[in-house]
Amino acid sequence: MKTIITVHNPDGTTYDEVYTSNTPMLVIGNIVIGERYAEPQGPLKIVNDNTGDIAECEFKPRGTWSTKE
User: Is 26 inside a domain boundary?
Assistant: First the structure.
């Protein structure tokens, strides 16, 4: 799934920027027992469609015994 974000400059002095990104996988935990949580996992890539600039990050899964932080 892709997300398209358009950024408009309110004063109109520059061109609009368009960013495209993929959606990382979303994991829902503790569905039956405990406090439910949602955490993204996997790669996220954001591309500026005007300039071709790319930003990438990786959401790593938390460990089995991780604490809420």
Answer: yes
Residue 68: inside a domain: no
Domain around 41: 2-59
- What are the pLDDT digits (tens) for 38-68? 888 999 999 988 889 999 999 888 766 555 5
- List, for residues 21-44, the tens digit of each pLDDT value: 888 888 888 888 888 888 889 999
CA-nearest of 20, 25, 27 to 58 is 25
- How far is 39 from 49, CA to CA, in rounded Å? 27
Q: How many domains does the chain divide into? A: 1
